[in-house]
Design a protein that fits this description.
The chain has 332 residues and is α/β, with parallel strands linked by helices. It has helices at residues 8-21, 24-28, 35-40, 61-74, 88-104, 111-118, 128-131, 138-148, 164-178, 200-218, 249-253, 263-266, 270-273, 277-282; strands at 29-30, 45-46, 50-54, 79-83, 152-156, 183-187, 222-226, 256-262, 285-293, 300-307, 312-313, 318-319.
Length: 332
Amino acid sequence: MDHSLEKLSGVLEQADYRVRAGSHSENRVWQTGFDILDLNLSGGFRSGELVLVGGPQGLGKTTWVLQVARNVARAGRSVLFFSFEHDMQTLLIRLVGLEAGLIGGAEAPTLNRIRQSFECADGLTGSLHDRLADTGGGAKALEVVREYADRLVMHRSTGSKTTLEAITAAIEKVSDETGQSPLVVVDYLQKVSVPGVQDEGERITRVVEGLKDLALDHDVPILAVVAADKEGIQVGKRLRVNNLRGSSALAYEADTVLLLNDKYDVVARHHLVYNVGNVERFKHWAVLTIEKHRNGKAGIDMEFLKRFEQSRFDTEGRIVAEQLTDERVFVE
């Protein structure tokens, strides 16, 4: 029997049933927790969609997707996070730093202070709770992470073994064990293994097409970090969708493409020349652009304050008021 064939009448009946049950929008829309982004995505990510997020090195792509994963898990939904770049303890430390920042604000412990406690290098004794008890929110942050830790499933991924088949198996396992489909995060796409394929362009094409098929087949949103090419990582260069490394299939297959840029690198010259005070201020902001949105408006530039000392962004962003350009034309 060919399960890929389905009469449109059946699709219509299923849609009508979900609407009558009042579960359609609630189950298929995944809020990111970044309010202005969710507003411009008509609620958030959607099941069955592939979302790509790219940006220059060091601008917080992992920080951003981990924060989205945290927001989804904290809201009561499951997340499956494939990490090719970082070990599990590093991600845990970042989450504790994020929560401590939300709780303690300026008094919160730095990531370095939290890392010292995890590595028993803080000169103290006792449990993690004991070691962080004297910090502004560190001990409470541990408690908050424990509240959603079972819903945030981490996969230590490798470029030699984590194939599309391995990703599929993990999605099915998490769905079975939690009783709900997870948000799937892949950090990052170019690291997914495709045995027997040496050409990078062909390999990435297979990966992005495979992830899109997985999103549709399992009715889950897949959020994947993508690397930039050499041109796209140049200092002062605004990353665009054509700077995503490896294959034109990235832009074609994705339902949504989000790009991070440093505001200082992409703001128009006159905002810097006539107000030199903006130079330092703009360095604290990242611009997140909806570069492609298959189901809505694209070309929307939003900005969020970077709190990298606490491994997070402020979630209350705003539309960029200044004119942006493709390249920085102001040099200090």
